[in-house]
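This part of the workshop introduces the protein records we will be handling. As an example, a complete record with its sequence and its C-alpha cells follows.
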Amino acid sequence: AASDSVGSLGGSTASLNPQPLKTHSSNFDAVLQKAGRLPCARSASLGFQEGAAYELTHPISHSELLPHCALVVHHGGAGTTHAVLAAGKPSAVIPCVPCSDQPFWAELVVSRGLGPGPVLSIADLTAASLLRLLERGLDRLDEYTAAAEKLGKRVAAEQGVFKAAELLEVCALGDVAENDLPL
C-alpha cells in the first residue's frame, strides 16, 4: 500500500455490532477516490466487497499495517487508538459504541491535534460527513502527522509493555510494599 493511503479499521467493534459499519463501509472507496487517496486496508468483517483492493481477509497486526497508512479511520477503541498513536499515525475517529470509552478517545485525539474533528458518531455518519472528515484530515495531514509522530516517540520511550510486565511480576511474587512498585 502507498504511504499516502488511508486505513479503515473496525477493531473488535465489528464483531460486536457490525451492521452500522457495514451500512457505511460501502461509501469508503468512493469517499477516498474523491479525496484522491487509496484505501490502505479494510476489514472483510465490515462488509467490503469480495476481491476489493487491499481487503483484509485474515487478521494482520497493527505493526504490519500501520506503517503503510498516512491516516487511519477507526472506531476509537483503546487498543486501536493506542496502536495508531504509538505508530505515529494521525487518526480520524468515528466512535461506534457511544456508551464506551470510544467517544473519550475520539475527543482526546481531536483536542491534542492528532486528527481531525469534529467527532462523528456512527449514527450521524454519511458519505458526505465522512468525506468532510477525511478532507479535513488530509488538508492538515502534515500537522497531524507531526503531532502523532511526536507522541509516538514518547509512547515508545515509556516502554509500557515492559513496565507492565515488570509490575505484574513484582505483584505476583507478593510481599510488596506500596513504595516498592516500579512505577
